[in-house]
Amino acid sequence: MKSILKYTLLLILLYSCTRQKADAQTVYITKTGSKYHTESCRYLSHSKYPISLKDAKIRAIEACKVCKPPTAVTGEKTKIDSSKVIDPPKRELKAVASQCSATAKTTGNRCKRMTKNASGKCWQHE
Q1: Element (H or E) spanning 99, and its range?
Q2: Which of 36, 39, 72, 123 has its CA at 20 to 30 Å from residue 86's CA atom?
Q3: Buried b / exposed e along 15-54 (16+ C-beta atoms within 10 A)
Q4: Which residue, among 42, 93, 36, has the nearest Cα to 59 in the 3D structure?
Q5: Three-state DSSP class for residue 24
Q6: What is the average pLDDT across 69-88?
């Protein structure tokens, strides 16, 4: 009976050790963030998507400086449910306001209004 108990405890110990190594290679990303986190990080309160550490490194996602997830990729493979993994949305470039390129007829000075139009001219000079 004691040998069975020892054997069972040994199996549980081995399983927990291998499980921790596998979990160490799974990190989490958010829908809009640019960093990867551990499962218990406070920045994962709104969205959390599992990703392997290797994939995070390939995508050039940085490690969170708060939760300090693992940064070294080991040779162990992890299985992640691919139905839950998403690609973070691509950030679109926002139009940057610039000074209107038109000149005033009366003074000959450049217009001081700001615009986001592709033509480079404000609403009055279009």
Answers
A1: strand 98-99
A2: 72
A3: eeeeeeeeebbbbbbbeebebbbbeebeebeeeebbbbbb
A4: 36
A5: helix
A6: 67
Angle at 95 between CA 91 and CA 101, to 5 degrees: 160
Taking the C-alpha atoms of residue 3 and residue 9, their distance in angstroms, rounded to an integer, is 10
Lowest mean pLDDT among 17-26, 92-101, 111-120: 17-26
Provide the percentage of residues in the chain whose pLDDT is more than 90.
16
Please report the pLDDT score of residue 93 as a whole number: 60
Q: What are the percentages of helix, strand and coil residues in the chain, rounded to 5?
A: 25, 15, 60
pLDDT digits (tens, 9 = 90+) for 19-34: 444 445 889 998 888 8
